Amino acid sequence: MNLLGLLPTDLSALLHAAGVPAPEGDARRVLARLISEGRSDVVPRGGLRRVVVDALAAHSWSRPTVVERVPDSDGGLRYVFQADDGALFDVVRIPLHVSGRYSVCLSSQVGCAMQCAFCATGKLGLTRNLGAAEIIGAFLAVRDELRDAEPESRVTGAVFMGQGEPLHNYDAVLQAAHVLRDPCGGRIASEAISISTVGLVPAIRRFAAERQPFRLILSLTSADPTVRRRLLPVAGRHDLAELAEALSLVHEAQGDRVTLAWVLLGGVNTDPAEVERIRAAFGHLPLRINLIDVNANPVSPGGETSGETFRRATDEERNTFMDALQVLKSPVVRRYSVGRDQNAACGMLAARTAVEPDTASCP
Ligand code: SF4
Q1: What is the pLDDT of residue 196?
Q2: Residues 197 and 324 occupy one common structural domain
Q3: 122 CA: nearest ligand 1 atom
C-alpha cells in the first residue's frame, strides 16, 4: 500500500493488522515525515523501533512522475503527471492574490464520465479513478518544488477542479481532502479546500450527512433545464429542485453560503434571464457565485479537444450578466481560469482566494 493516502489512524490500524502494535504517535511521526515535511525516507527524527521500520518497508510512499510543466502567462504552472500504469493527469499550481501564496488545482480521475459539452476531458470517457495516494503524491510534488524554488512561499489552498468529477470518486477524494487538512499531512485549512461537482445529488447528500468541513462548489453553468442538459448531461438525472434540496442540506450542515460556479459561455448562458432562473431555484439559499471564463477549444492531457466550439463571453456579455446578478445580493467573484494560454482542459479552474493554513502542529 502507498502510505501517502493514509491518515495516522489508518497507518496505525495497518500496522496493527500486520501484527505490529504501533502507538498512533509513531504513525503521526511517520506521516509528518513523509507528508508535512515531504521527506523521502520514512524514519522520523528520534527513530523508530526496528519492528516498525521493517513493517513499513513492505509499503511504498512513491509519488507520480512529472512529465511536463507548462507555465501560463497569468502565473499558473500546469504539471502533467504520469502514474505507475502510464495514465496521465494534470495538476495546476495557481498564484493567489497574496504574494507568495499558492493554491493547487487537483485532478480526481483519469478522464471523466460526465461528458460536459465544453470539456475536452469529458470526451475521453473515464479511464479510472485516482487513488488518494496518487492525489496526495502529485500535491506534494508541486508543493515541494515550490518550497525548493521559493523557500518563503507556501501552498495554502487546494481545489478539486481538475480532470474528473470529484464526487464520482467520493471515497478517494474525501480521504485525500482529510489528508490535506491533517496536521501531520498537508496542513491546509479546511475552508481552503474546495470540492467541485457538476451535481451528483446522492453524493452531495452524503457530503452533507457526513458534515464534511470542506467547501462544496456546484458547477451550475445554466439554470435553464434544456440548456443545462445540453451542457451537462448529468442534469438529465437530477433536476434543479433536487439540486437545491441537496445544497440546502449542505448549508444546514455547514452554515456557510452555497457556492455556485458558472462557466461563462459566450452567446449561451449570459442572458439576464438566467439570473431569474437562478433566483427561482436557489434564491432561498445564501449564495456565492463564482464566474469562470471558458477555455476556447480546450485540450485534455491526452491531447483531445472538446469538439463542440464554445467562445469566451465578450466583455459586454460578462458585464451585463454580472450587473443582472446584483439582484441576488450575493458575493460574485470572477475566478481564475487556468490554462488560457495552452488551452488546458476545462476542468483546470480554480480560485485565487487566499486562506491561511492551519496553525495546528503535528503532535
Ligand atoms: S467539466 Fe469536469 S465533470 Fe465535466 S467532463 Fe470536464 S472534467 Fe468531467
Answers
A1: 95
A2: yes
A3: 5
In a domain, 47, yes or no: yes
How confident is the model over 204-223, as pLDDT tens digits? 999 999 999 999 999 999 99
Give the chain's domain count: 2
Is there a single domain that holds both residue 27 and residue 104? no
Q: What is the CA radius of gyration of the chain?
A: 21
Q: Is the C-beta atom of 121 inside 6 A of ligand 1?
A: yes
Do residue 137 and residue 16 come from a single domain? no
In this structure, are 48 and 83 located in the same domain? no
Per-residue pLDDT for 346 more than 70? no
52-86: pLDDT as tens digits: 999 999 999 999 999 999 998 778 899 999 999 99
- Looking at the structure, do residues 220 and 141 belong to the same domain, yes or no? yes
Residue owning the nearest CA to atom 4 of ligand 1: 116
pTM of the shown model: 0.92
Looking at the structure, tell me whether residues 236 and 297 fall in a common domain: yes
Q: Is the pLDDT of residue 356 over 60?
A: no
Judge whether 108 and 135 are in contact, CB under 8 Å.
yes
Range of the structural domain that residue 309 is part of = 65-350
- Report which protein residue has its CA nearest ligand 1's atom 5: 122
Q: What is the rounded average pLDDT of the residues 292-321? A: 74
**CB contact set of 276 (below 8 Å; sequence gap of 6+):** none
Distance 193 CA to ligand 1 centre (A): 19
Question: Are the C-beta atoms of residues 228 and 235 closer than 8 Å to each other?
Answer: yes
For the cut 90, the answer to whether the pLDDT of residue 308 exceeds it is: no
Q: Are residue 170 and residue 303 in the same domain, yes or no? A: yes
Q: What is the DSSP letter of 60?
A: B
User: To which H or E segment does residue 311 belong?
Assistant: none
